[in-house]
Amino acid sequence: MTDTQVELEFTVTDTGIGISEAFQARIFEPFEQEEKYTARQYGGTGLGLSISSSFVNMMGGQISVESRLGEGTKFTVNLAFPRVIEDEQQRIGEYNCNKSEREEEQHELSGVRILLAEDNEINAEIVTELLQESKAAVEQACNGEIAVEKFAESPEGTYTMILMDIQMPVMDGMEAARAIRALNRPDAEKVLIIGLSANAFREDVDKAMDSGMNGYLCKPIDPERLYQILEGFLRDRALQA
After folding, report:
1. Distance between CA 44 and CA 48 in Å, rounded?
2. Cα 54 to Cα 69: distance, rounded to the nearest angstrom
3. Beta strand 72-82 with 62-68: parallel, antiparallel or unpaired?
4. In what order do the strands lie in the sheet with 113-117?
5. Most buried among 9, 120, 161, 222, by the most CB within 10 A?
6. pLDDT tens sequence across 111-120
7. How many whole angstroms separate alpha carbon 63 and alpha carbon 55?
8. Average per-residue pLDDT in the chain?
9. What is the pLDDT of residue 46?
10. Consecutive H or E run containing 222
11. Per-residue pLDDT tens digits for 182-217
12. Cβ neighbours of residue 99 closer than 8 Å, sequence gap 6 or more
């Protein structure tokens, strides 16, 4: 625990059949189950721990397992959370609004096209499904370089928004945002770019804004805040038209 951060540890323990040491090395990989009969006997697809691991990673934490055959298993999750500061609600900028006032609203994003730059496949699928439920069209890019290429090769005005993960291989989100802003086309300056990261410190937000981003969302993504930022941008653009 520090002046700016609180660290929490969660443990889940059972006294079940246990997990072999060999399988522990790959237990968080998708569709992995220790024995072929596991699904028939206990159910499941082998995705639960993979998704749990992805959520923990999205929040900047760690998940680990300790187990012995015939004795049981213990899972440990460590997470660090920033302490709330007075100006925390202002860090998203002009596109943010109060969540509680609109929490129950339905969202209609027909005609909105979003470029999602995210290297984690499970994270990308979660965000894509979330947006598609509101009828938005989503196109994925697995790193910043591909995101820049997709934007540069698309007709002007194709994308309404770019959701840009900050930490990606090949080219990170801030490099990609700067590259897009530097393109010689009118929509390169106007397209809404929102950074995605598990880091919520003020200095991280400031760096993202300096790279040309319009806003910043902390992982795991709050769906209502995402909708509010996008809808606020669409309203502003309609007023300027």
Report:
1. 8
2. 26
3. antiparallel
4. 137-141, 113-117, 161-165, 192-197, 215-218
5. 161
6. 889 999 999 8
7. 10
8. 82
9. 56
10. none
11. 999 999 999 999 999 988 788 888 999 999 999 898
12. 222, 224, 225, 228
What per-residue confidence (pLDDT) applies to 236? 78
For tokens 């801030």, name the residue: 174
In this structure, what are the phi and psi dihedrals at residue 168, rounded to the nearest 5 degrees?
A: -140, 155
Q: At 154, which amino acid appears?
A: S
Instruction: Identify the pLDDT of residue 47.
Output: 64
Tokens of 196: 């995605």
- How high is the pLDDT of residue 39? 43
Kindly report the backbone phi and psi dihedral angles of residue 46, in degrees, each rounded to the nearest multiple of 5, phi listed first: 90, 15
CA 152 to CA 49: how far, in whole Å?
37
Give yes or no for a contact between 185 and 136, defined as CB atoms under 8 angstroms apart. Answer: no
Structure tokens at 237: 């653009």
Number of residues in the chain: 241
Retrieve residue 113's tokens.
Answer: 């096209």
Reported as a single tens digit per residue, the pLDDT across 136-172 is 999 999 999 999 999 999 999 999 999 999 999 999 9
Both structure tokens of 75: 């899972």
